[in-house]
Specification:
Blueprint (H helix, E strand, L loop, with lengths): L6 H17 L10 H20 L4 H26 L4
């Protein structure tokens, strides 16, 4: 199966698109701060999934999948901060 047919990749791309749409509503003073960080983290998730699928060695593949998970956790933390709430 190609990476762009994988459910995890498709969901990660949809998440990135939603993050881009939602960060437009953040205050303009956050444009180069939290907003930019959230967008980078969101794009990193499907990007790392895709790159991991392109690796031929299981160890390399796993490293990129772990990087994608790390970016997901990073984005979650940024969303909590942006919403000003505790989870």
């Amino acid at each position: 199966m190609r990476y762009d047919e994988m459910d995890v990749w498709l969901q990660a791309v949809a998440l990135a698109v939603e993050v881009y749409a939602q960060t437009d509503s953040l205050p303009k003073e956050e444009w180069y701060g939290l907003s930019a960080q959230m967008r980078r983290a969101a794009v990193s998730i499907p990007s790392n999934v895709a790159e991991g699928e392109g690796r031929h060695f299981r160890r390399d593949h796993g490293r990129f999948i772990l990087a994608a998970r790390g970016s997901l956790y990073e984005l979650h933390t940024q969303l909590v901060i942006a919403n000003g709430s505790d989870l």
